[in-house]
Amino acid sequence: MKKKYDFIVIGAGSGGVRFARLMASNGKKICIIENNRVGGTCVIRGCVPKKLYVYASSFFDQMADAKVFGWNISVAKHKWKDLVQKKNKEILRLNKIYIKNLKKAGVEVIQDHATFISSNTILLKKSKKIIHGKQIIIATGSKPNYPNITGSEHGISSDQFFELKKIPKKVSIVGSGYIALEFAFLLKNLNYEVNLIFRKKTILNEFDTDIGSRVLYYAQKKGIKIFSKTFLKKIIKKNDKVILLTNKVSIKSDLLIYAIGRSPNTKNLNLTNTKVKLDENNAIKVDRNSRSNDKTIFAIGDVTNRKNLTPVAIREARILFDYLSNKKNNLKLDYNKVASAIFTQPEVGSIGYGEKDLKKLKIKYKVLSTEFSPLKYSFYKNQKGKVFIKILYCPRTEKVLGIIYIGESAAEIIQSLAISFQKNLYLKDLRQTIPVHPTSSEELVTII
Q1: pTM of the predicted structure, to 2 decimals
Q2: Quick one: fold of 152-260?
Q3: Fold for domain 3-144+263-324?
Q4: pLDDT tens-digit map of 86-115
Q5: Strands 400-406 and 387-393, how do they pair?
Q6: Enzyme catalytic residues
């Protein structure tokens, strides 16, 4: 006999867990199915372990700063093994909390792989059980891409990077997005040799051009070896070395990491047994209420490829819960007003439109920008780095259309700005604000 639920959630990442807990707390019978560890990409093999590694790598720069300010720092050596052990302990703690909170809310947690038999019926592949749900939420996230070339098996994905118990001396990273750059900076700061290989002329092409050009400058300044306009043709393994044959040169490494984007995780769901439609990127097509073309199936998070960030998936889950529960509130989601950060050194924070976006949309705009050496770097003989601030605004109304901040603590700063950006920020609001002095972020006010 089929076990029946009000809701079946496929995928126990941040979005799926949030929806399941909310709906179970509302008295509904609900299960969540996960074929990996509960917590999803962000908690298990993404944002959280990445940020812990970034913290570890940041002490390299902090020790250099300390010497300039009079501290006598002895020779420091990083132990990768210790970092991994502590990271694993923290991830396990979070994993247990997720499971505990789901069960406490009344959610049945099923460790299995789900595939569709029909729009309302799911086959659990490991246990061979069949379950039925009145409505089904797909929150399976995304998976890393691999290059379609001979020898691709000799490289690892960004997911597998967090499973490494040791790192060899020379690492090659393929990719030009934020994951590739974050990995490159953190590994370089931990004293590994890093090659960065990408097809285009510059990096971070999905962001404003000023972000890509400046992060590339700092990558080169830090000693990351750049191979632009370079693409892989073949990969071979020889004497424990990975040899990358490209259109330009051969590159020898001890470790190869692919960070060439992620794709919606829809392949093994048997969606052809439903009315769900996919777009050209294999993302699930949904309307503003996260409903697919199949009226009983909804989708949230990266699997829809709307804005692939953990807090967005959590908000989509909340909005979907309100919609299905007929709850009325003022929660909205404007994807253009979602702030994002890149955890390189220096950090990058941005919100709203970049120049490329505005040109594409044919929106008139003006730019205010400034670049300066922060007070913290006053004692350096040679320029260590600068803070860059860019504000894009409407020339007629002076409404702020986008903000970019590159510098220390950029992620924290852009988070604070996101609050006012949600309420529609104008230049007059910045003019009327008294700055905190001395800070780097005060330039957001004095730039006007």
Answers
A1: 0.95
A2: FAD/NAD(P)-binding domain (3.50.50)
A3: FAD/NAD(P)-binding domain (3.50.50)
A4: 999 999 999 999 999 999 999 999 999 999
A5: antiparallel
A6: 437
